Structures are given as C-alpha cells and as structure tokens.
Amino acid sequence: MKKGLIIIFCLIGGYAFGQGKWEQKFEQLGTMLPSPNTYRTASGAPGVEYWQNQADYDMVVELDDASQSITGSETITYYNNSPDPLSYLWVQLDQNMRAPDSDTPLIRPTGMSDSIAGKTLQAISRSGDYVGGFKISKVANADGSSLDYSIVKTMMRVELPKVMNTGDQFSFQIDWSYNINDRMLDGGRSGYEYFPKDGNYNYTIAQFYPRMAVYDDKEGWQNKQFLGRGEFAVPFGDFNMKITVPADFIVGASGELQNASEVLTSKELERFNKSKSTFDKPVIIVTQKEAEAKEKKPVRNQKKTWEFKADMVRDVAFAASRKYIWDAMAVDINGKTPLAMSYYSKEGNPLWEQESTVAVANTLRTYSKHTIDYPYPVAISVHAASIGMEYPMICFNFGRPNEDGTYSATTKWRMIGVIVHEVGHNFFPMIINSDERQWTWMDEGLNTFVQSLCHREFYPDMPLRRGTASSIVNYMKGDKEGIRPIMTNSEQILQFGNNAYAKPAAALSILRETIMGPELFDYAFKTYSERWAFKHPSPADFFRSMEDASAIDLDWFWRGWFYTTDNVDVAVDNVKWYRMQTDNQQFENRATAKNAKINGGGEAQKATNFEEAAETFTFTSTSDRAYREFKNKVDDEAIKRANADKNFYEITFKNVGGLVTPLIIEWTYEDGSKEKEYLPAEIWRLNEEEVTKVFAKDKQVVNIVLDPDKETADTELSDNVFPRADMTSRFDQFKSQK
Questions:
Q1: 434-565: which CATH topology?
Q2: Taking the alpha carbons of 356, 195, 386, 428 in that order, is the dihedral positive or negative?
Q3: Rounded Cα distance, 319 and 298, in Å
Q4: How many CB atoms lie within 10 A of CB 243?
Q5: pLDDT tens digits, one per residue of 678-688
Q6: What pLDDT digit, counting tens, does each position of 690-735 carry?
Q7: Domain boundaries along the sequence of the chain
C-alpha cells in the first residue's frame, strides 16, 4: 500500500511541477524566498535584531584642472554592528574598472564589420593614451603605521591589526590619486567634458574615493567585482569633505555647503541666501553673463576649498567648473525646506534655466508623497552631455539645445524625464538602499514607476515611454531567446532598459491601477518605503511588505512578472448565448447546429457572432438530494420567474501567453449602453490554460471586448473581441507548436 501511495504522490508531483498543464502559477513563493529570521521578518519588515554597519569619512580632495586628475586623502571610521567578528575589511576601488588590468574590456563581446568608426576602433584596440585606475599611496592605521592590504581588481582587502568584535570601531587612512577620464572618448558614469571653443572643462566626479563595501546579514561582504553595469552597494555614513579647485570654479556636491561666505562673492552669497526662502521660482545665484566672463578670463594660479557635510548618506559625488550658471529655490516638504538646485553651462540654456530646477522640485514633491519626506538639505541637477547618473543629493543629466538656443519638444521632454528619474534615485536606492550590484530592478524599476507618477501629476502632456501597460507590450511579445526574467543579476540581463526599467515599472503600474487599486497600493508601497528607509532591503522584503500591508496575496504576480518571461495574451476563444425555454416562448434555435457535433463526430463549431437566436436550456426544479440535511428549500418558481428574461453568456478564455492576469470585460448591449466587469486573476487557479465562465445579463449583448483600455499588457488584441471575423483558436495553434 505504501508503495502505491508513493507512486501516486510522484505522479501528482510531476504533474504539479510542469509535466502536466498545471505549472503552479498560484503556488506560494515561500520556498523561493529566504527564510524569515530575527533580522528580516515574514512580514517584510526589519526584525528586532536587524543591524547594518556604518562607515564615516573625513576626506580632503584636490582637482587639478591642468592635468585633469584627482588626489585625495581620507580617514574612514568603520563600525561593526554585526554579530560577527571581522578580521579584515573590504574596500571598493571602482576606478580600477579603468585600470590597464581591468576585466571590463575583456568581457565585452566585440565584432568586426565592413566599416568601423574611429571611436569604436579605439575601444576595440585599446589604443588610447589614457591610463586609469587608482594609485594607492598609503593605507595606514590611525597612528600612521602601515596596514597590510591586497588589491583584487576593483576590491581591496585591508588586514585589521586585531579582530573587530560586535560594537567595535576602527579608523584607518587611505591616500590615493587617479587620472580623470574623458567621457566623450572613454564613456563612464563620471569624468570630464571638454569644450574646445572656450578651452574649459566640466567635471562630474563620482566613485572618486576608496569606499567601504557592504557587509550584511544576507551576503556577508559584498564581493561582486565592479564590471561597469551592475552599480553599487554602499553602507550609510556621515561625510565631511573638503574639495580644492581653481578659485573661479563653482562646486556642487552631496551635502550642505559649510563655508559659503568664504567661497562665494558677496552678490552670490546674497542670492544664495535669498533662494532659501523663495518657493515660487528659481533664484539665479551665478548668472550666465558672470559664467561667460570667467570662461574668457580663467583664473589658473589660485585655489579655493569648498567644504561640505553630508549625514546618513551612502555615497558622495561632486561637480565643478568655471562654466557653471547656478540657480536654486526652496521646496516645502511638510514644513521642511530643502533647496532644489541646478548647475549648468551656457550650452544648456535657455532650456535648463527654464526647466531643470522646477523639475527637481516637482520630483521631490511626488516622491515624498509616495515614499518618505525628502530628508536631505539639497537636491541638485547638473548639466552634463549624454548621461543620466545619480548620487545622494546630486545627479548628472543630459539635455542640450541647439547652438542657437532652439530645441524640440523631444529634447525638452527627454531632459525633464532624465532629471525626474535621476533626482528620484535619491529615494531608490540612495535612501531605500537596495543592492544595485545584484538587483538593478530594485532601484531602476521602482524609480521608473514613481517617475511615471510624477509625469502624470506635473507633466500630463509628456509622452510616457515607460511605466504603463501598453509601453511594455512589444518587449513582452518578443523572442524569448532575447528576454530574461526581471530576477536576473545586473551583469546577465539582456535588453537592459526593458528588463530592469520598463518591465518592473509597467508591472507595478498594472498592480496599482488594475489589480490592487491606487489607494491600497499606495498604502503598501509607502509602508515598504518607510520600513526600509536608510536600511538595506532585499527583493523578499519588498514582496512581503506589499502583501503584508495590503492583505492581498500577490505571490502569483511576483512569480509570473518577476521570475518568468511569460507574457499576457488571453483569447476570447468561444462565446455561447443561452436563454431559458419557457412554456409560452418558442425560440427559433438556428445556433444549435453550430454548437452540436457535426456529422456525428468532431469538435463543435465555435460561434462567430450574435446574429443567430440564443440556444435554450430547460429549467428544472432543484433535486431533494441537493438540500442534504437542510429542511428549508429554495423557491424554484421565484427563481424561474426572476431569470426567465435573462441572457446567459458562456465564455471560454484561453491563456495563450502563460502569464495569469485579471480579466476585464466590456459588454456592449443592444441599446448602445456599455458595462465593465472585472474578474480577479485567481479565476485561473484551477486551470492555468483555459477557463469558462457564465455571465447573466438583463440586456442582450452585441459585442464583447477583453481588456478594452489596454490595462494588462495583453500582447495580442485581435482575439480579445467577439464577434470577430476569424474565430480560429490561436491557442490551438500555440499548443501544436509547443
């Protein structure tokens, strides 16, 4: 008997795990997610013993405008809040991605063609004269004694003189330098842009200092090398930063300027202070005329040092140039008044003066409403060619008008779009600090989704490229060989923009607008944001928090949208119309032949329209057996009278694409009126490929449309309509090809 039970169990198990029709699309994610513990709970909230380490920095940096290089010295104080003893520390050396021995150019596939542009050929042959990478000149204890260290590509292991136990802190020094890359020639997330007409530079500087890697409860030390695509995993800390530049430079940076009276002229200081209480429009702190004057007569033999302080940030970056126009305005965020600011050269005007800082302010308003109130003192947008890149409180953004100052609507919208997106990154991942090196979608996807909400709120005329159901259709119906699940590591993603930005954003839009509703979704999303602000969330923390705060089981949604490459494609495969046969009614049933077996065998022919009369069914009284032990009975005659004039429509839906989805049905009646009906995705729970449902209607139906407003990203709309000319089942064709 036991042997028989085992065989039956195995057969059922094989059926459940994909050998049969049932693929467990509604199975819980529990076995796929990390087990809850005292650090991360089953609710998705941080546990009672949640911990994270901290790294504070005191750094002095000098930018050499003559040699385009950076030199720096820093003291890092690292706090071990973990329960684990640490015998060494890992430091990230991201600039080593550009070192001569970097793996980055080696892992990039290349190919030859009949013609190759010079810039491309230089990248293939690596024939440029730029030499990148950190030059580490000192790693020392706080007392100046040397520490042993080993450099492993973009990581550096620092040996501790003694083990760091829970609660210990350790301070050490690093001195370094590197050559700044020319972004036009070498690309990159930071670097410089040269302007040959006036001989000046725009520096957008990031990943410019050795910085601590994350040590956490999920992975231990973050040990994935920086290859260029997967971004960053960085612990929070407090920064004091001194940046020395030529005396005529303007500097914008992560953090609050500490010595404005020392580095600004009296006019600039007056305007800067005025901007702190100006909420209606930006105040110009450095005018275009003043910036152009500095371009023509640069000061090259004098220096100034700008001081910034940034608390509870995971990183810092800065921008510097004598070319900068600078404007700022205050933003009211529930009583807090951070400064929205922009730095841009004359090449960005008039567009940047008109739009950039306003876009920064609008972003802070929308994101604060949907996540947490913006906590930092400034939010900065810097004009830089052909880039969109984010850091705490500062980001670098493209968008350049023509030389005569004219610009197209496309240029304007793309510039506003990138500014909203990059400023929005202050929230994801700068505050809600996910591991970008591992899961790109947790910052890019979530951010793109909230970006779409900002566009809807402040820029309703702006074309939405991402963050809607319809925008993801072409990608979802593409060749599956070129698609990978959202839950794929950053370095292995195919179609990066679609996978990590567009698909997660569209999925969350569908979840908000169609499945959960805005009110419930917004509550859950804000709960997740509040729980994990200034912490390190994982995908499981997001999935669990969204369900915990909404009381909606969404495992089927995460499974389908995030763990598979299935797409939504539901077909209205067959429709049958019925009415009740009554004693005083005779129905001419021309449809019977269409739905009966043809010539005594074969499949029933499917209906093609509503032109024939309805099929009829006979009403019968409820059997005594149906009542079981109950003593009372239903009033069959009353039920018969109530349904005598109703129309019953039996619809068969086929799941061609594989991704389960709610069914949204629009009915059009004989009198021209319309009605929408919504069936939850759980309609597929017992059969994931086909479901039949009967609908009772008072009016006679003349047309049925599935997903009439394109809310579900259905990739094939031709089979969403009944009647239609060709009712051949694409589902049958699909099955024959599998």
A1: Neutral Protease; domain 2 (1.10.390)
A2: negative
A3: 17
A4: 25
A5: 999 999 999 99
A6: 999 999 999 999 999 999 999 999 999 999 999 976 544 444 554 4
A7: 434-565, 570-737
